């Protein structure tokens, strides 16, 4: 009887174990399908005509998802603001495109480790600017006006000093306003090496100052002329925009809502906003703006695809930026994604990916 009781008890325990195991398996939910936001930002996120997504960021996410056994589906957003807001609100489990890591964005969402370091670039038209336009731009530049002001100021100062030395012994420079006017006119005449018959100083101090002024003015005029000639030649050969500092004096375009706007605003550079990069590049080609500023790799891609014969991207990078994967605040995926991402960007696969899309070795 004892043996029968033990056998029955053992069978009961085994049965209960199977039931508990089955119940546990039934209660474990299947992995949830993640919703991943993206937007077209070639060459980082490219949507083909068949609806299939490719690109640097998309390929990177696919590799991460494979490593972590994540199921997901891509949802397209028309603009960056939609990606940021959707991720912050939890509509997206992650956002993958060409998203710049910034302070304001990091306040409402989390970012993965950076996977691409770049900066802003400038696209300009290859059409040579009109000569009159180059001359006007040079004449209105701060440096030119500053140089003219310095020359005029020196001429006025020397004229006043000549009047002070000559006013009592030289009747031509004597008197009040008439004498001051004659002195300033003589100073301008000496500076330009022109001769209009104006009498010269006769006092020792006046003649000494005149000799010094003639020598100094020759040098000043030569330097001024060389500077203007060099500026006009540079603008004629290279165009009105050669670096980021030139943006303050030309018509600038940028994508509304992009990180580029933060830079232009901080630098007090006036700009015209466009919905997309192609819209801005069309305006550049039409002559409505003089320069278009955007993330350099994206800008280079657009120009290479559609505008290689009419515009170029300057060989400069400014305002360094980092691209990352956006996640909701406190996302449990962040650490796992960072681990795989860091391993990936130091692999040969990543080097081959960058070379395939950007030609970078």
TrEMBL record:
Keyword Glycoprotein (UniProt): yes
Residue stretches making up the Solute-binding protein family 3/N-terminal domain: 33-361
SMART domains associated with the record: PBPb, PBPe
The Ionotropic glutamate receptor C-terminal domain, residue ranges: 33-352
Domain of life: Bacteria
Recorded topology in the membrane: Multi-pass membrane protein
Name used for this protein in its record: Transporter substrate-binding domain-containing protein
Species in which this protein is naturally found: Kaistia terrae
Upper classification of the organism: Bacteria, Pseudomonadati, Pseudomonadota, Alphaproteobacteria, Hyphomicrobiales
């Amino acid at each position: 009887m004892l043996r029968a009781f033990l056998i029955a008890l053992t069978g009961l325990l085994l049965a209960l174990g199977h039931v508990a195991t089955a119940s546990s398996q039934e209660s474990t939910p299947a992995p949830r399908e993640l919703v991943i936001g993206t937007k077209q930002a070639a060459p980082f996120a490219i949507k083909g005509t068949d609806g299939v997504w490719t690109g640097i960021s998309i390929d990177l996410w696919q590799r991460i998802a494979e490593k972590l056994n994540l199921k997901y589906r891509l949802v397209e957003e028309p603009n960056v603001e939609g990606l940021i807001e959707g991720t912050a609100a939890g509509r997206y489990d992650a956002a993958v495109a060409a998203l710049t890591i910034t302070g304001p964005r990091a306040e409402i969402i989390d970012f993965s480790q950076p996977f691409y370091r770049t900066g802003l670039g400038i696209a300009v038209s290859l059409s040579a600017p009109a000569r009159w336009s180059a001359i006007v731009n040079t004449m209105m530049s701060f440096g030119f006006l500053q140089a003219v002001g310095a020359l005029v100021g020196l001429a006025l100062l020397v004229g006043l000093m000549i009047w002070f030395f000559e006013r009592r012994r030289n009747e031509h420079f004597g008197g009040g306003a008439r004498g001051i006017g004659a002195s300033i006119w003589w100073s301008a005449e000496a500076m330009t090496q022109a001769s209009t018959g104006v009498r010269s100083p006769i006092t020792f101090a006046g003649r000494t100052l005149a000799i010094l002024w003639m020598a100094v003015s020759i040098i000043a005029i030569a330097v001024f002329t060389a500077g203007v000639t060099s500026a006009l030649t540079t603008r004629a050969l290279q165009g009105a925009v050669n670096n980021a500092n030139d943006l303050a004096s030309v018509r600038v375009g940028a994508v509304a809502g992009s990180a580029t706007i933060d830079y232009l605003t901080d630098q007090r550079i006036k700009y015209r906003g466009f919905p997309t990069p192609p819209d801005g590049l069309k305006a550049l080609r039409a002559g409505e703006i003089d320069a278009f500023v955007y993330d350099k790799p994206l800008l280079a891609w657009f120009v290479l695809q559609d505008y290689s014969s009419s515009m170029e991207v300057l060989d400069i990078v400014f305002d360094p930026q980092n691209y990352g994967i956006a996640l909701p605040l406190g996302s449990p995926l962040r650490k796992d994604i960072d681990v795989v991402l860091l391993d990936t960007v130091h692999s040969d696969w990543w080097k081959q990916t960058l070379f395939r899309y950007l030609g970078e070795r």
